[in-house]
Amino acid sequence: MALTEFSARTNGGPNPFDMHLDENSFLERVRAFVADEVLPKTREWESNRAFPDSIWPRLGELGILAMTLPREKGGLGLTCTTYCDTIREIAKGDPALAMNVAAINALCVAHFDRFATQEQCDKYLPGIIKGEIKLAWGLTEPDAGSDARRVKTKATPIEERPGYYKINGRKMFITNAGKADLIVLIARTSDTELTAFLVETDQLGFTNVERIHTVGVSASWTTSFDLKDAVGWHTPCKFEDAIGLLYRGRLAIAGMALGIAEKAHELTVEYSKQREQFNRRLCDMQSVQNMIADSEMEITAARLLLHHGTTLFDEGKPVIKESSMAKLYASETSNRVTNRAIQIHGGRGMTPEYLVEKLWRDAKLTEIGEGCSEIQRMVIAKQVTR
Fold first, then answer.
1. Quick one: which of 31, 72, 90, 197 has the fewest CB in 10 Å?
2. Which residues are annotated as catalytic?
3. Looking at the whole model, is its pTM more than 0.70?
């Protein structure tokens, strides 16, 4: 279906979600959805290397695609704390889905909220909220990753169409790009200026080049794509403002990492109570107890760092340092906890019979996506020493 067919379906009408649903009730509904519809399917989705197309309207029905959108624009208007807790809960069922939901909310939908014109919102938001328009956020390029200002994709104004540009370049490692109908894309308008555009993927100038398969979060349809005179609709914003959306995004990735760690820890504690060696349960062995204790302590610390960051965000305070600390610590905790989970499960932990091996692979992404650990340390140090 062409994106123009989504225009003004619900814009200006009543909020389609339950206005009386409080945030605790919303989280309970998310937990039920994860338990019934996500966790039982996570291996199937990984095997298929894709989510079913039906997942997007289902997420829309639950309001999960509009968590960060204010109520007056048709969203749920949730606090950052509840948004990140939602990502955390989804990650316990399927980290790849959590990653996609995090990116759609914190980067794409938030971009519409902050920077899109009313005309752009009227055209796209109704379909986005319902899950009929699938989204991606396009920054990374072959030569531009951590160094975002190295973006080479170029945007040139179309003289006869004010606000529209011809866009040329290549993007890669773009989450959900292979399924997206619309991409919020960063491109260069001059040697010094970068800004953002809305690019529809069903045009001749847009070509998905290849699917990028990864060892973890495999169900996410990550691709590289080419833009050859593709038409982009400018969203009025400065590069620094668009990149500023990453701060809430990093808190969400911290939530994803925390959810992975919590699930792996839960499975490992249960396994250690059931598995016996040398006529003793694993959980009665000091070496195993040490690992369980370390994981419990680090998960608790990561949870507190995340809550501190989301609380500051909800209070309208800067979270540049706090979001990096939460993301850095939670992601590294997730990798340590899942590694311990494998160790405690022994050889069984290396087999697909046990979910900990998948969580172990999925956890690695959290140390890389939305700013690798080295970048987070640099951000933290600059904030401390400025």
1. 72
2. 370
3. yes
